[in-house]
Amino acid sequence: MKKPNHTTSDNISQNPSASSKITFPPRKIRKLTTITPITKIAEIPVATAISTNSDNSPKIFKPLTFKGEVDIALRHLRDKDPLLATLIDAHRPPTFESSRSPFLSLAKSILYQQLAYKAAKSIYTRFVALFNGEDNILPDAVLAVSPQQLREIGVSYRKASYLRDLAEKYTDGILSDESIVEMDDVTMFKMLTSVKGIGAWSVHMFMIFSLHKPDVLPVGDLGVRKGQQVLYGLKELPGALKMEEVCEKWKPYRSVGSWYMWRLMEAKGVLPNVAKAAVTSVEAA
Q1: Which fold has domain 98-209?
Q2: Helix axis angle, 117-130 to 102-112, nearest 10°
Q3: Mind listing the pLDDT tens digit for each residue in 63-109?
Q4: Model confidence pTM above 0.85
Q5: Are the CB atoms for 250 and 81 separated by under 8 Å?
Q6: Beta carbons within 8 Å of 32's beta carbon, 6+ residues apart
Q7: CATH class of 62-96+215-284
Q8: I want to staple 158 with a disulfide (CB 3.0 to 4.6 A). Which of 19, 179, 205, 256 is the partner?
Q9: Could you tell me which residues come within 8 angstroms of residue 2 by beta carbon, excluding any fewer than 6 positions away?
Q10: How far apart are CA 104 and CA 227, in angstroms?
């Protein structure tokens, strides 16, 4: 499954001169059986990432890897959105597959931030080799590696500190693969964005491509925003509120609708002829 190619992510600033001075003191690792609450959580527009029932409780949907779920999603989107239907007919159906653990997926997302795909892939390959395989990339193992060792394979000191923060939250019992999978979307958003270096965009990508959640709208993703602007003939690049409005009809399969926005932008924003005619008529009206 090809993810959208981003050279930047989450607007994380870097200062090489400052990050080069970061050092990590020795630390005693504790393993806890309960999840420790986080006291300082950033205010995030989590409503853009989930669907809720009328009583404000989260709706529960099957993951997109569940047999037949993508077909159900496509039927729903075709029925609710004729313009999107033209893209669905013009492109292959989406696939959502990943065998990586949540911890490894999050670590990989940190390594890929703010890098071109080719450079990020090269660093990740060396990162995997450092641990002798993906199966060995575990929180304790990450904490046992020094910042200098990571720097030698191309990981910045700042990103090394992000990886360490993620690993520490695992070894402290704040996060675990099991707890992440069981969290509702609101809690997951708050917990994961408490990790240094993981912002809203990274969580959205994690929810779609690692956990295969069906109803995620990545409002900060430029490809999805541009795709909606082209598909619906919008005069301006839509912001979060406009995206929510436009994509209301996609629920509860906004992840799949977003997938087709990426395909549209991969096609240089060229719409199928049927969609072009529809957009023209809307603009004329």
Answers
A1: Endonuclease III; domain 1 (1.10.340)
A2: 130
A3: 999 999 999 999 999 999 999 999 999 999 999 887 889 999 999 99
A4: no
A5: yes
A6: 172, 173
A7: mainly alpha
A8: 19
A9: none
A10: 30
